[in-house]
Each structure stands twice: as structure tokens, then as C-alpha cells.
């Protein structure tokens, strides 16, 4: 479980992948430049799980790895280090992705008319789909009527404004 006073790097890791990510992130903060084997040993996780977490965090730019030669074994290993300074950039990028998706959805809602039969179990249809269906619901057979989507559009706009406020866009 994540403590509310936990380091932001650990919180983000836990949000990305849950308990395994939490353990790996805590281990990385305790021992900088740790190998995957050292992390597996300190967390009790299997080595393949540790590697999967490390590669994912590396791919997201939250950790860095340096390749060094293991003098004892004679082969190369990676030593992993958290990039705590990148947490804010990661969060910012995630917000931008969400903002983009919400804007696309709002644009779709604004550019389409939707029809619905009134039955909660049935889904709505665009004008083009409704026309092909002769304005009959494919699920229940009721007549499809124009459905206002003001509430949905207003909710998307509100979420977009909230994220823009966070991003100071």
C-alpha cells in the first residue's frame, strides 16, 4: 500500500503497475545503481517480473540504466537508477495525452447527431447508422429518436478546462 507521504516516484510507479512496481521503485530509491538481481533479492520478486517492471519504467523515462561489466562473472549487467526529476514531466505528458483524447471525443460529440430508442440497455447510433437501420433500434426494435448530447458535451468541456487549468495551457 502506498503511504500518502511516499516519494512521488514511488507513487507514480505504483499507479502505473501496482504492487510489483511499488516494490521495485522503493528498492531503487534505497539502493541507487542496483542490478536487477539485487532488486529481485531485496523485493522478493522473481527476476523476470523485476526485469519486466524495469523495462517498462525505462521505456516511460522514469529510470535509467547503465551497462557495466561484472568483474566477477565477466559479462555485462545493467545498473538501474531512478529519475525522480522526470516524474513531473511524465505526469505532464500523461495529462496532455488525456487532454488530446478528450478533445477528440468532444469534437466527435459536436460533429454528430445521435439517435436513441430510450431504452437504457440499448446504445445510441449516429445519423448515418440510424438511416441504415430505418430508425429502428437493432436491439429492441423501438423507434430511434434524436437524442440531445448537451450534457455529455458539457462534461467533456468541463474536464478539458480542468486539465488545461492544471497544465496552464
What does this protein look like?
With 169 residues, the protein is of the alpha+beta class. Helix content is 54%, strand content 13%. The protein has two domains: 8-82, Arc Repressor Mutant, subunit A; 88-167, no CATH class. It has helices spanning 8-17, 19-30, 36-43, 47-59, 87-111, 127-132, 150-167; strands at residues 63-69, 76-82, 114-116, 125-126, 145-147. The strands form two sheets. A three-stranded antiparallel sheet has the order 4-3-5. It has a two-stranded antiparallel sheet with strand order 1-2. It is elongated and about 75 Å long. The two termini are 34 Å apart. The model has no long low-confidence stretch (mean pLDDT 91).
Descriptive tags:
Arc Repressor Mutant, subunit A; 2 domains; elongated; 5 strands; 169 residues; alpha+beta; 7 helices; three-stranded antiparallel sheet
Secondary-structure blueprint:
Blueprint lengths: L7 H10 L1 H12 L5 H8 L3 H13 L3 E7 L6 E7 L4 H25 L2 E3 L8 E2 H6 L12 E3 L2 H18 L2
Antiparallel strand pairs: 1-2, 3-4, 3-5
Helix pairs in contact: 1-2, 2-3, 3-4, 5-7
Summarize the structure.
The protein has 169 residues and is α+β, with helices and mostly antiparallel strands.
Q: How many DSSP E strands?
A: 5
Return the average pLDDT rounded to an integer: 91
Main sheet?
3 strands, antiparallel
Task: State the end-to-end CA separation.
Answer: 34 Å
Strand content: 5-15%
* Count of discrete domains: 2
Overall spatial form: elongated
Total helix count? 7
Amino acid at each position: 500500500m502506498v503511504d500518502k507521504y511516499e516519494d512521488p516516484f514511488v507513487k507514480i510507479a505504483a499507479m502505473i503497475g501496482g504492487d510489483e512496481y511499488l516494490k521495485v521503485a522503493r528498492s531503487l530509491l534505497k539502493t541507487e545503481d542496483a542490478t536487477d538481481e539485487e532488486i529481485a533479492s531485496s523485493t522478493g520478486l522473481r527476476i523476470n517480473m523485476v526485469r519486466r517492471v524495469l523495462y517498462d519504467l525505462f521505456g516511460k523515462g522514469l529510470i535509467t540504466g547503465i551497462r557495466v561489466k561484472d568483474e566477477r562473472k565477466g559479462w555485462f549487467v545493467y545498473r538501474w537508477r531512478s529519475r525522480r526529476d522526470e516524474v513531473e514531466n511524465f505526469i505532464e505528458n500523461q495529462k496532455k495525452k488525456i487532454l488530446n483524447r478528450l478533445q477528440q471525443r468532444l469534437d466527435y460529440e459536436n460533429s454528430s447527431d445521435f439517435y436513441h430508442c430510450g431504452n437504457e440497455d440499448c446504445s445510441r447510433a449516429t445519423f448515418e447508422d440510424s438511416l441504415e437501420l430505418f430508425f429502428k433500434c437493432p436491439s429492441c426494435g423501438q423507434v430511434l429518436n434524436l437524442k440531445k448530447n448537451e450534457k455529455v458535451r458539457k462534461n467533456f468541456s468541463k474536464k478539458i478546462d480542468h486539465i488545461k487549468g492544471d497544465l496552464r495551457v
